[in-house]
Amino acid sequence: MFKSVKTNINVVKLLTVIIIFLLIQYIMYKYAKWNVDNNHINNNMMLTETKEETTLAKDVDIWQIEIEKIELKAEISEGTTEEKLSKYVGHFEETQKENGNIGLAAHNRGEVNYFQELKKLQEGDEIKYQYNKYQNTYEVIRNIIIKDTDWEYLEETEENQLTLITCVENEPELRRCVQAVEKEVE
């Protein structure tokens, strides 16, 4: 009798191990399938983003800003996301690209810190801006500190101007705002 009970216990143990093994196999299968499906979705998203960036690159041959006084020459890209600002000067999408108020943003610290020296700009300093065939030279009219919630400087204007925005070091609620108007042709 004890021998048959012992045999039954061994059979139950064996069946338990087999069931656990099959469950683990099933879970691994489902995880692998989910991972493949997820990678497929991520790859499609990356392909879509790459296609959009390629299309954007074809539409824009040259988009750059140059400020000789602070030895800045940088490419501009649409948008002000962290991803964009980690590579380029960003363009505020709500603002113009040619005539009117052109709003640009960039970091002033870190590895990509295009606007690090904006604080050195003074009235009369020149900024060159190019968007494809549109080229213009602007003259700084103000270099001020504003609140991070103050968006009035990016509103549409009748005159052609650039508005450059960056953070203020150790002051997260403040921004540096440099505005420059189209330079008169002499």
How much β-strand is present in the residues? Answer: 25-35%
**Regions with pLDDT < 50 over 5+ consecutive residues?**
40-57
Percent in helix:
25-40%
Task: Please state the structural category.
Answer: alpha+beta
- Widest sheet: strand ordering: 1-2-3-4-7-8-6-5
Shape, principal axes of CA atoms: rod-shaped
Radius of gyration: 29 Å
Task: Walk me through this protein's architecture.
By secondary structure, the protein is an alpha+beta fold. The protein has 2 helices and 8 strands; from the N terminus they run H-E-E-H-E-E-E-E-E-E. The protein has helices spanning about 1-60, 80-85, and strands spanning about 65, 70-80, 90, 100-105, 125-130, 135-145, 160-170, 170-180. It has an 8-stranded mixed beta barrel. Strand 7 (about 160-170) and strand 8 form a beta hairpin. It is rod-shaped. The model is unreliable at about 40-55 (pLDDT under 50).
How are the elements arranged and paired?
Blueprint: H1 2-59, E1 63-67, E2 72-78, H2 82-85, E3 89-91, E4 101-105, E5 126-131, E6 134-147, E7 161-168, E8 171-182
Parallel strand pairs: 2-3, 4-7
Antiparallel strand pairs: 1-2, 1-5, 3-4, 5-6, 6-8, 7-8
Task: Summarize the model shown.
By secondary structure, this protein is α+β, with helices and mostly antiparallel strands.
